[in-house]
Amino acid sequence: MLSRDHLSVSLHSNGWTLLHSAVLLGSQELVKSCFAHYEFIGDNIYLESVHFQTSLELAIALHRCDILELFKEKIHHFDNTTPRLFLELCFLPQHGIRAFDHPVEILTSNKDTLRITRNLHAIQDCSLTRLLQICLWELDIDFKKEILETLIRHLEEFTGPDSHPAIPCWNNKEVCEAVKILFRETGCSVNGKVEGFPYLMLSMPNVQLVEFFIQEGVQVDGKDQQGHTCLFHAVEKATGSDSPESWYMFINFLLQSKANPNERDNLSETPLLYSLSFRRSLCYFNSSGWSDVPYQAYDDDSGTRVVKIWRLLLEAKARPNVKDEKDRSLLHVLLSLLQTGCLRSSEGLEIVCNGIAILQEYGLEINSRDAKGNTALHLWAILMRAAISDETIKIGSEIVSHGGDVNSRNDKGDTPFHLLMKEPFLRDDLVEPDLWSRILALGMNPWIANCDGKCPFEVLL
Length: 461
Prior knowledge:
Blueprint lengths: L17 H8 L2 H13 L3 H4 L2 H12 L3 H10 L8 H8 L15 H4 L1 H12 L5 H9 L4 H13 L1 H5 L12 H15 L6 E2 L2 E2 H4 L4 H9 L14 H11 L3 H13 L14 H17 L14 H14 L14 H11 L4 H17 L14 H11 L3 H12 L14 H5 L12 H8 L21
Antiparallel strand pairs: 1-2
Helix pairs in contact: 1-2, 1-4, 2-5, 4-6, 5-9, 6-10, 10-12, 12-14, 15-16, 15-17, 15-18, 16-18, 17-18, 17-19, 18-20, 19-21, 20-22, 21-22
InterPro entries: Ank_repeat_dom-contain_49, Ankyrin_rpt-contain_sf
Keywords: ANK repeat, Repeat
């Protein structure tokens, strides 16, 4: 087949050549035979062609260090691969390479091919550090710096718990060793940032890599431009991840590494408050047409996840009565998210039913007031004006059962009942009698006057 009469440079199908097949099979002999044939027929043009380049890149995707050594002996094409593409090949995502059509797509576009490739891959000895050393050893320092920054920037995408590589191979330890090599080769500072985000922050949730940064002197509470530390971001990730357990473990690691659970961001929020408040920004982006924002895709157990995160933070001495710059407590933030639709009623009920008791174990003041003197029950009453339902009534009932004062007054002397009765639809008798009886059963006093001398029912007049 490799005789001069049977092999042509133009012999390919959709960019796939005999050399690609040799690489896929991992046959050093066949690769050598291809090289020998091209040299025999004096085809130096092929050695400069896109087919040769993509064959080399296929070897990277398959982690075939032995094959890459053969390529390196013949021609140096590693600098023709961009840092982003190089890393996509190393950590080949299951969805394939999005930038352009590539012969490597045969590995990800067909389930049978992918299964066979994985089986072949399982019996080979892989090393990410060796792969890097082969591909990058002769490249200039600037290219290596680009590789380092691109890897750190996309580390979670390539290696995080929710990544889905076509060929699962590299563990966190291997990735950590590769990053160490790149720092050593480039001389870059471990205190660097990418678009305002510290390297340590972008290394989540790779415990080994974050531990390396901390050992090198990086502050575990280093902040981004919003004043968020690594712990803030880990709390957010744990809520929405498909693999929350990985993030719980990482949060524990950060806390054991002396991350401050009471650190404040630019809005004076702590990680405890941020476990809920980050939904506001997601809600805003979604309403602004950002269709890829995932807050609506949260699972039904997201409320349970929030409570789990609270427990981890509280056990590490997070303050349960902390407030933001608007003097809002955790329960105030929860009710405000329900009012704006950034949190579903089912999630809110789950959090209230399971979270208040935990917060009270650590000293929660359930009747804490915001800047206008409103307690959580005042905000609950405002929520009820928009949506009286079984779930919203249960939320109020839970707060009352844990000591919430249903007749507390705000700065205007209004009780929650005053705020509830300000809704005009109550005049039209649109609330079912059963729901009314459940609301009144909470113990609301209809005769308390506010600062204007009006009782709740007089507010309607």
